[in-house]
């Protein structure tokens, strides 16, 4: 029986793998991170239903792990792809975890005793992690990883581990191996725009200007603040908040001319969550255009208006901070020409999506193309949006263009059916 490779294990990749596996075909689900789940695992709620993000994603992650037709390859990168549809040879590089996946129980004892604290990528820098860690409590596989770059080799994790699962540096090495597959689904996702590139926004130079992803981790009950919204300058709860839209999207000055698709809706979602929790909060959303295009999205926008969230059509030139960490924003309301001065205690930058790191280089490995925006190019956006110029290689999710979760899931399923067809033909 022919097999299929799915590269990238965010929600689109997981959906593709599950759909292929449910057709009785073996799937290699390849993920460079220590856990599957992608960006969706970092979100608190999803729009327009305000459902818990992990309540939707976690069952899919568990299904992917338990499905006998899915082989998980975490901490693994694709180094080379040869061959053609029906007979691809994919060379993979597995990076060491320095923890035995078969004996580790994920209990967390090693993390409790580790004295080292470093930047936590999963928490978007709002929290810290240990040198031996799990990115979040619901990781799949439920196994720790030891960060040898920051590990001080104190030996405490070795001593406390009952199953003796923590490995020394010489006990786990990089491993290259090759798999043969009939077709490939590429769902490598996206990265969020780094607003440091917009100097006038003062991101990282003032603590009370944060990104939407940092905000997501802050309001999540399982996040580093336990769901408490705080000003990073003094730890106090803000009384006034401004959401600033189109940061890293529709901006000719940084050559990000495309719309990132989800920013309007996730900002409205977060504003609604805050307003429902504390109706006294003064919340303003500064926008260029509100793009509520999906099913139920316009009604969601109207719900935000009814809750008393202020919408001002205008994008400010800069965010100013005084010596007491007070912020000031001057903006023109382009609907009536009024100049407005806002003094929020917290500003949340709605950062857009951009192609995942090294997308162009990875396209060369696969033998496919990227478009002017840097995302993977579809062979035909109207007739075959998941196809590429290379028969047998399909693209899905936010690797193709910015898109929300429902669209990513749908496209993952579409790519899966194309891959299933190739696998069945090659038998």
Automatic annotation (TrEMBL):
<dbReference type="InterPro" id="IPR017900">
    <property type="entry name" value="4Fe4S_Fe_S_CS"/>
</dbReference>
<dbReference type="GO" id="GO:0051539">
    <property type="term" value="F:4 iron, 4 sulfur cluster binding"/>
</dbReference>
<protein>
    <recommendedName>
        <fullName>CoB--CoM heterodisulfide reductase iron-sulfur subunit A</fullName>
        <ecNumber>1.8.-.-</ecNumber>
    </recommendedName>
</protein>
<dbReference type="Pfam" id="PF12831">
    <property type="entry name" value="FAD_oxidored"/>
</dbReference>
<feature type="domain" description="4Fe-4S ferredoxin-type">
    <location>
        <begin position="141"/>
        <end position="171"/>
    </location>
</feature>
<dbReference type="InterPro" id="IPR036188">
    <property type="entry name" value="FAD/NAD-bd_sf"/>
</dbReference>
<keyword id="KW-0004">4Fe-4S</keyword>
<dbReference type="GO" id="GO:0046872">
    <property type="term" value="F:metal ion binding"/>
</dbReference>
<feature type="domain" description="4Fe-4S ferredoxin-type">
    <location>
        <begin position="95"/>
        <end position="124"/>
    </location>
</feature>
<keyword id="KW-0411">Iron-sulfur</keyword>
<keyword id="KW-0285">Flavoprotein</keyword>
<dbReference type="InterPro" id="IPR017896">
    <property type="entry name" value="4Fe4S_Fe-S-bd"/>
</dbReference>
<keyword id="KW-0274">FAD</keyword>
<dbReference type="GO" id="GO:0016491">
    <property type="term" value="F:oxidoreductase activity"/>
</dbReference>
<comment type="similarity">
    <text>Belongs to the HdrA family.</text>
</comment>
<dbReference type="Pfam" id="PF13187">
    <property type="entry name" value="Fer4_9"/>
</dbReference>
<comment type="subunit">
    <text>The ferredoxin:CoB-CoM heterodisulfide reductase is composed of three subunits; HdrA, HdrB and HdrC.</text>
</comment>
<comment type="pathway">
    <text>Cofactor metabolism; coenzyme M-coenzyme B heterodisulfide reduction; coenzyme B and coenzyme M from coenzyme M-coenzyme B heterodisulfide: step 1/1.</text>
</comment>
<keyword id="KW-0408">Iron</keyword>
<dbReference type="InterPro" id="IPR039650">
    <property type="entry name" value="HdrA-like"/>
</dbReference>
<comment type="function">
    <text>Part of a complex that catalyzes the reversible reduction of CoM-S-S-CoB to the thiol-coenzymes H-S-CoM (coenzyme M) and H-S-CoB (coenzyme B).</text>
</comment>
<keyword id="KW-0479">Metal-binding</keyword>
<keyword id="KW-0560">Oxidoreductase</keyword>
